[in-house]
Amino acid sequence: MTASLQIKRDKYFVVLNWVDESGKRKQKWVGTDLSSTGNNKRKAEQKRLEILREWETKITLRGNDILFSVYLDNWLEETKSTIAYSTYCDYKRTIQGSICPYFESRKILLCDLKTYHIQEFYNFKLTEDKLSPNTIHHYHAYIHKALDYAVKTERLNANPSDKVDLPKKVKHVADFYTADEIRKVVGGAMGTQLEAPVLLGAWFGMRRGEILGLKWECIDFNNCTLSVTGTVSDKRVTGTRLENLRYEPSAKTDSSIRTFPMHPTAVEYFQSLKLKQDTRKKNPNYNHAWDEFVCVRENGDLIPPEYVSRTFPKLCEKCGLRKIGIHELRHSNISLLLENGASMKELQEWAGHSSYSTTANIYSHVYSNSKQKLSETLENILR
Question: Do residue 266 and residue 296 come from a single domain?
């Protein structure tokens, strides 16, 4: 790398020249803010040496003279094999759709990226695009992870996102159904395509992907257990949801792989459902692609995740109940267990949460109500 002094608009500039890894010649002009009309020649020379040393350090760090937006795309492809495909799809849509366009338009290089660039991006998204603080936290998780990788692979010396000030998260308080309301929505689901998904959500508090990914081999009728070992997803980068419908033989986290005891009603229901499906398979027009799965339509097609999310709130309304999402049926199941004496640790394992704090944070208000009941019970005892 070479560095020379040049004068432009009565100011000293340092002009850097080097050849990148591909053999392409590169040049960059760096301002010094020193006037060429004063007695600044010696100061400018010192500045030239400082800038040369700074940039020699930068350029020797492999691949950091690319645009930050390009780096984000490269990082995602380099680390693709370390994450689930559905997670990759989420990252890809967010990075390409929301993060890269901002930094691409400003032509910020990875090696030039500063904390204030990232801070300005978050402020812009909050004020101009009116995004929620929680969405900013999602963006930050992606950016911070990508820049940590840049440090790990020696593209950067430090992570510029470490010192960013993030907005305070808005805590989401999920809606829950009471036991009576759950019984009512379960009754409304019987005889519809939502029957099995709703029962699985109400009985076991399973996630949508876990419900639709349940295979018959995961139901042990002899030992009366049901195991979660995989999920169904329709997340995509391109194409329709149906085209991207697939089974992933892994759960959300390691702790999501779990086994439930089945009560007699559940055992009887699934035995009956298995018999119905085996009978339907004799139809010549039956789709055998999803034979292993529990939640299928009468023609053998897997019930799509999007269908469940779209029709469940309508079912709630039809039952005369306030609308909730299918994931809030899971919350309702876990809340009822907590209200009826289950400990947070037991619920962590039941819900498949990776940490105790996740369970505690989500259900803290229910736990508070439970403690209030304990306090009232104690008061009655000691009167």
Answer: yes
Instruction: Provide the domain count of the chain.
Output: 3
Q: What pTM was estimated for this model as a whole?
A: 0.70
* Cβ proximity of 316 and 322 under 8 Å: yes
Residue 100 in domain: yes
Claim to verify: residue 53 and residue 77 sit in the same structural domain: no
- Range of weakest confidence among 62-71, 318-327, 360-369: 360-369
Q: Label residue 238 by pLDDT band (50, 70, 90).
A: confident
Name which of 78, 61, 43, 50 is nearest 112 in CA terms.
61
pLDDT digits (tens, 9 = 90+) for 134-169: 999 999 999 999 999 999 988 899 999 999 999 998
Residues 183 and 324 in one domain: yes
Q: Are 339 and 366 in contact (CB under 8 A)?
A: yes
What is the span of the domain harbouring residue 94? 68-152
Contact between residue 288 and residue 302 where contact means Cβ atoms under 8 Å apart: no
Rounded Cα–Cα distance for residues 247 and 243 (Å): 12
Check whether residue 45 and residue 189 sit in a common domain: no
Instruction: Count CB neighbours of 296 within 10 A.
Output: 22
> Which tokens in the block code for residue 193?
């395509």
219 inside domain: yes
Q: In whole angstroms, give the CA distance from residue 211 to residue 209.
A: 5
Residues 347, 210 share a domain: yes
Instruction: Read off the pLDDT band of 242 (50, 70, 90).
Output: confident
Q: Which residue has the higher pLDDT, 62 or 258?
A: 258
Q: Are residues 213 and 328 in the same domain?
A: yes
Same domain, 279 and 323: yes
The answer to whether 102 and 121 are in contact (CB under 8 A) is yes
Kindly state the tokens that stand for 57.
Answer: 């350090």
- Scanning the chain, the segments in alpha helix (DSSP H) are 41-60, 68-78, 85-94, 100-106, 115-127, 133-152, 179-189, 195-204, 208-212, 264-280, 305-318, 326-339, 344-351, 356-362, 364-382
Determine contact, residues 14/27, Cβ cutoff 8 Å.
no
356/284: higher pLDDT: 284
Secondary structure letter of residue 109 according to DSSP: B
State the angle between helix axes of 326-339 and 305-318 in degrees (0 to 180), rounded to the nearest 10. 70
Locate 273 and state its tokens.
Answer: 């459902």
